[in-house]
């Protein structure tokens, strides 16, 4: 399925980013040690990065502090950021899967609910297929940001797929989603997830 192919690629990209960033962290720690040894950098001076002509960011008060951040704090922030992204990828996969199922089985959308169109909007559709696509996309948009519990209930009622029967316990999936969701709206700089993901 196209939805799974997209999901798999996204997760592989995430895994590659994780591995490459950890490698960069390790190389940076070694580079700092070498530059101090060669006296290019004073161990007691602040470590700064110029981001623009008007802005210089202080990474750490000194080289020792920066090495400590690369070994622990930065790794923790990386796990938190990637964790939020992984949950987002999972949600997109579930909704994309529903979209593909509805395209193949439009009868699953049958219900008594009515949909109103203006004359202009109705005449803009060139075929019944375009109307169906519009309804499917609208249905999928309703599911965005509704939470994992809502999605699991929807899958059970519409498709007869019960997440409780997955290999990963449902309570664990709920915990992951509830942990990540508050941080997604705050952004990685303010996110304070305490994850169990290891390097």
What does this structure look like?
The protein has 199 residues and is mainly α. The chain has one domain. Helices cover 65% and strands 6% of the residues. It has six helices and two strands, in the order H-E-E-H-H-H-H-H. The protein has a two-stranded antiparallel ribbon. A hairpin with a 2-residue loop joins strand 1 and strand 2. Helix 1 packs antiparallel against helix 2 and helix 2 packs across helix 6. The longest helix is centred in the middle third of the chain and has 42 residues. The protein is elongated, with a radius of gyration of 24 Å. The chain starts with a helix and ends in a 13-residue tail after the last helix.
| Percentage of residues in strands | 5-15%
The total of beta strands comes to 2
Low-confidence blocks of residues: 183-199
Q: What is the spatial order of strands in the main beta sheet?
A: 1-2
Query: What is the succession of H and E elements?
Result: HEEHHHHH
Large-scale geometry: elongated
Task: Compute the CA-based radius of gyration.
Answer: 24 Å
Largest sheet: 2 strands, antiparallel
Number of helices: 6
Q: Which features characterize this protein?
A:
6 helices; 2 strands; mainly alpha; elongated; 199 residues; single chain; two-stranded antiparallel sheet; 6% strand; disordered C terminus
Summarize the structure.
With 199 residues, the protein is mainly alpha-helical. The protein is 65% helix and 6% strand.
């Amino acid at each position: 399925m196209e939805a799974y192919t997209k999901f798999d690629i996204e997760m592989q990209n995430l895994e590659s980013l994780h591995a490459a960033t950890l490698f960069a962290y390790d190389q940076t720690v070694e580079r700092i040690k070498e530059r101090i040894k060669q006296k290019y950098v004073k161990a007691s001076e602040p470590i700064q990065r110029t981001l623009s002509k008007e802005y210089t960011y202080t990474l750490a008060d000194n080289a020792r502090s920066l090495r400590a951040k690369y070994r622990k704090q930065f790794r923790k922030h990386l796990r938190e950021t990637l964790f939020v992204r992984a949950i987002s990828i999972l949600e997109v996969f579930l909704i994309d899967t529903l979209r593909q199922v509805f395209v193949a089985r439009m009868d699953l959308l049958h219900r008594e609910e009515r949909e109103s169109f203006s004359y202009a909007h109705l005449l803009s559709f060139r075929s019944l297929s375009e109307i169906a696509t519009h309804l499917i996309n609208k249905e999928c948009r309703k599911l965005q940001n509704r939470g994992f519990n809502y999605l699991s209930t929807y899958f059970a009622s519409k498709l007869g797929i019960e997440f409780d029967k997955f290999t990963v316990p449902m309570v664990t999936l709920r915990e992951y989603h509830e942990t990540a969701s508050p941080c997604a709206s705050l952004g990685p700089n303010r996110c304070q997830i305490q994850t169990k993901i290891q390097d």
